[in-house]
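ok trying again, last paste got cut off:
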Amino acid sequence: MRRRAQMEMAGLVVIVILITLGILFMAQFALKDEPDKNIFTRKELAASTMAAVMKMTVTGCTEGTAQFPQIEGDLLDDCAVFGDVHSNYICEGKPSCEFLQFKIEELLDQTLGVWGKKYHFVSEMVSNNEEFLYIDGYNAVTGTGGHCQDRVRDTSGDFYLPSGNGLVRSVLYVCE
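nice, full thing came through this time. structure:
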């Protein structure tokens, strides 16, 4: 009888140890940061924000062929081909490159900046890697700049636009 009681006690000890290990194992995964989820969230945020910005139409343009030019199709192409010197589009009194610099930064500040996300936007000619639009997001709420080059960052993916001057590549980085 004494031997049987000892075996039951040993069995209970083993069960308690297994339950404790199970709880510790579960707690390890519950408390662990979810980097995959953060990466997915940043990538989707960058991609959807970039798509929305590129497809946006603009009002207040006094010159150009389209009454409501699209950022990607009309203004970005005009900026890549003509620059600020001979711009076909004048929006809110500014040539296309200057207007895009202002407008894209304003849009990103009103979304990503308000959400506390840092960002970095670049448009460049693929043929010579010459950047003609460069926005390093500044968050007015926290007073911190974008500087995504030295941080964990994810990209919207490349958005390509054939222009009269060659291929234009635009990309948005969102970083921690």
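cool. Helices lie at 2-31, 35-55, 71-82, 96-113. Strands lie at 90-91, 94-95, 118-125, 130-136, 153-155, 159-163, 166-175.
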